[in-house]
Amino acid sequence: MSDRNPGMDLDLEWVSKVRVNTQAVLRRAQQVQGRKVAKKEWQAAWLLKAVTCIDLTTLSGDDTPSNVHRLCMKAMQPVRDDLLQSMDMHDKGITTAAVCVYPSRVADAVKSLKAANSNIPVASVATGFPAGQTPLKTRLEEVRMAVEDGATEIDIVINRTLALTGQWADLYDEIQHFREACGDAHMKTILAVGELGTFTNVYKASLVSMMAGSDFIKTSTGKESVNATYPVAIVMVRAIRDYYLKTGHKVGFKPAGGIRTAQEALVWLVLMKEELGDQWLTPHLFRLGASSLLGDIERQVGSAQITQLRPLCSS
Amino acid sequence: MAERSSHSVYNIFKSMELGPGAESSAVTAESWLEQHSRSLGLFIDGKFVHPDNRQTLTVSDSKGENLCSIVCADDDDILSCASSAAAGFKVWKELSDNRRAKVLLRLASVLQRYSQCVCEVCDLCQSPGSAPALVRLAQYYAGWAQLRHTLLPEWNPRGVVAVVMSDDVFFYSMWLKVLPALAIGNAVIVVPGVKMAPPTLLLAQLLMEAGLPAGVLNVVTGNGSVRVKVAQNNQISYVTYSGSKQDGELLVKQMAGRGIPVSLSLSVCSVCPFIIFETADVDSAVDGLMDAAFKNCTEWRWVVCVQESVYDAVVEKLKFRMAGMKCVRVSDECERGRVDAAVREAEQQGATLIQSCPPPSSGCVYPPTVVCNVAPPCSSVVSPPPGPVVPLLSFRSAAEGVALGNCRPHGRAASIWTEDLTLALETAKSLCVGSVCVNTHSVTDPSLPQSGRRESGTCTDGGREGLYQFLSASVPLPRSEPISLDYTKFGTAASRFLVPDGSDPSSVSRSCTHLVGGKVCKAESGCSRAVQAPGGAVLAHCPDGGRKDVRNAVDAALKVQPGWMKKSPAARALALYSLANSLDKRKQDMATSIHNQTCLSMEEAAQEVELSISRLSDWAARCDKQNGHMPLLPHTGSALSTPEALGVVGVVLPDTKPLLSMVSVLGATVSVGNAVVMVPSEKFPLPALDFIPVLQASDIPAGVVSVISGGKDQLTQALANHNEIQAVWYWGSAEGRQFLQHCSPLKRLWLHCEEEEDEDVRKFWTEPSFSMQEEMWRECVVWKSVWIPTA
Lengths: 315, 791
Hints:
The complex is a heterodimer of chains A (about 325) and B (about 800).
Chain A: H1 12-16, H2 22-34, H3 40-52, E1 54-57, H4 65-76, H5 81-86, E2 98-101, H6 106-115, E3 122-125, H7 136-148, E4 153-157, H8 160-164, H9 168-182, E5 186-190, H10 199-211, E6 216-218, H11 230-247, E7 252-254, H12 262-276, E8 288-290, H13 293-314
Chain B: H1 2-6, H2 9-15, H3 27-35, E1 39-40, E2 42-44, E3 47-49, E4 56-60, E5 66-71, H4 75-94, H5 97-113, H6 115-124, H7 131-151, E6 156-157, E7 160-165, H8 171-183, E8 187-191, H9 197-209, E9 217-219, H10 224-232, E10 236-242, H11 245-255, E11 262-265, E12 271-276, H12 282-293, E13 301-307, H13 308-322, E14 328-329, H14 333-348, E15 352-355, E16 365-366, E17 369-372, H15 379-382, E18 389-395, H16 398-406, E19 410-411, E20 413-417, H17 421-430, E21 435-438, E22 450-451, E23 453-454, E24 460-461, E25 471-472, E26 510-511, E27 514-516, E28 519-521, E29 528-532, E30 538-543, H18 547-566, H19 569-585, H20 587-598, H21 602-623, E31 637-645, E32 648-652, H22 658-671, E33 675-679, H23 686-690, H24 692-696, E34 705-707, H25 712-721, E35 725-732, H26 734-743, E36 748-753, H27 759-766, H28 770-780, E37 781-789
Parallel strand pairs in B: 1-5, 7-8, 7-10, 8-9, 10-11, 12-13, 12-20, 13-18, 17-18, 20-21, 21-37, 26-30, 32-33, 32-35, 33-34, 35-36
Antiparallel strand pairs in B: 2-3, 4-5, 6-25, 14-16, 15-17, 19-23, 22-24, 27-28, 29-30, 31-37
Helix pairs in contact in B: 3-6, 5-7, 5-9, 7-8, 12-13, 18-25, 19-21, 20-21, 21-22, 25-26
């Protein structure tokens, strides 16, 4: 993986100067949604890129070793091999970016992947997911245990109480503690944007998370009523851009929750390309948190192949 | 197969290119052109006509290929077109409001049906137009057609209106003039530029399908001389032009002396400030800027002014966002050369560039370019080249930002970015432009009036305000032929010196003073002229004012006018009431003055004074009653449309009703916050000069009103040639009117005849109708619209 974000001292002056104009952001989001990827090969290539950026996720109460195992197998072979072969992509290492499970299932996932000789990272949600309303001590312990079990990426949730009441210094300290607990594991910080109230708060929370050393900032847990939306994403990636311009460190972005269709996946990629440029279009800096998205992408890749490429092959 | 391999899925996977944009289809447009055998005629009397043996012009597409040919109309065509329009007007104005509204509503649905074709024809001809915007326009003005007699009862349509366009304006701007003109019952002759001709002809055809009677809309195509010939035709009652400043000025000059009002919307090439304050959402501002400046086609150009504290952030973000942007089309090879030369020149003067890629040495494209650290007098700031190039300037305080925004001669639009509401509204108020967008840019909607200040024209389009240019309340000027006039000599003849013969030694004539910038004084030249009673007896000697007196008056006016304008309307009302009071106290003196000067009976003179007092009270009362409004847009947000003072108005007063006409004009202009420089009747100046003490005894601040007596032509010439005078109202000779049109085409001119004892004309002063007073009020103001998007 690329260099990690070492973080920086909390700069409250920077945080306090943040201003976001909601209407302008909404307008920009509409503009981005209007940008289209070309059909045929372009569509297929972009969809495959989306596949490689997926954190294939299962976060249910009824997760067992068997469905976690199936998930791992799907992550290793996300698209049918014959389809990949028809595009000459079968040997390009198309897998999802990671699998993402609850802490208790980390061991199962690690075992399944190791058995299949795969080095796909295992990510775990932690820190009292999804509400974050447990004592700091147990939240830290949760992180350490997941890491011990072999998770190399940890998705933490921030304490919304601190963010909503503007206690940025306390939030910064908490996240730094999590970062320490993660050790070498990469840390993705979930802002739970649906519960932050305003775009300005989202921007500030993004900045504080990055200052505290997050490797990724993530929109939502998937358990709030409002999940990843394009306008909120624009606010977050602008914070990422700001942080990069000031410090030179690239922080990744992970939208999660409610992303189900191939079309949406394309818009997310276009949004990253438009706002942050091509350098962010890699699994190191962009992840899509999703559980049911892959099925639709596979179907769309297939149909793109059948309807678009056949005339070319027969000619 | 070679193509396939370079675009293999794996290569795209690595490069993440977006791929080619959707092929723009032009099937319906091509088939419409084929239908007309690719040679479009003129659209006269509801049908296409193809006169023989006419010169033709070629319309080409973006690749330079011929699309179709259009006819260059000659004199016969223009004649038949004008008579068709005159006949069309008779039919159209007689229709009920509801019938006219129906036609426009049907146009909206016809436009929706053919929107694909309209868009494609516009695209092919490189004349950008959006069908949804046209549909909204048609619907909006259908509403005004429906309500015309209810809401605008005393106003009359002008007759046959010529809408004249140059080539580089938006297609939408044309219909922003044509549809309101049609809505209130005018017939229209459109003269589009060459590129815009095919879509205009298509829309004319669609209007026929919507049920517009034949002749109400005619389209005449051709080169620049056709524009002028159409405008000069004697059936035309009003000419409105949209395009570049150069051509606009020329058109007004060519129309001088014909008795036809001309107004100009000079939005093309207008340079608009884009101001980013430190309190702005800088990311959104940068997005907005890139959207505004680097699109393929824009009517306006922008100069970016950034507050110093966020200057570096803006530059960094621009660099980041512009990296990898592709070149943008410019109209042709030689324009690319011009753009490149301007950028090189700025670079030589020490500017640094933000450019996405090095400019190509040939072809019709240029990379998006921001020119930073540029010296303000550099030509790329003063008149930025057309194309994707914007200069970036920095300022320290908000006040400096406004000053920087106001330092260009144009006054079309501005975009300001700040989250601070107070700052936003204050800045919007202080910018001398027609429309201000807060935290967004270039919002257009037909309900939002767009007007030009200074070099951006004399015309207001859109909204209710945009209707009045096509209506008149008072008696229109008679048509005339231009007189041969030596413009250089006008008003330069020395005033004839009069040694009164046989003067009565028993009455020594008194010597009067006039009022310049709040000071009672003699003429700067030291000369004076004799004032005679109608009988020939010399009553007094009044100052013989000239250019220098006008200059002094305007200098003083410019100093006090901003303060007068900023006073609350209630305070202005009180000042005018005090003037009325002060007149009331001296009514006996004033009546005597009128009586001596005009030989009216004392009774009639007293009546005029009474009327003058009530007129002043009228305007005082209106001060805080006539206001702007909040247009309702289809977007969410708040729009404001407010009337603002013009600045300094020059007025040449008529001979009739010397006191009443003066206080009417004074009340109107001053009530909205203008300063006024008045030239009293040359024949009867005494009542105006005797009014000066009345004025001084009132609460009107010194300098707001100047009264300069002297030769009418000399003073008219001085007013016309003073750059800071925004408007001239003139009652006088045909020569004077022709001179004004010729020599100050960019001033707002309100021209009237030197009236005879005509009943209608006298009523204009003695018992003006509500609409006449409103017309006068509308001549005193310029409209500003402010738009703030909110949830």
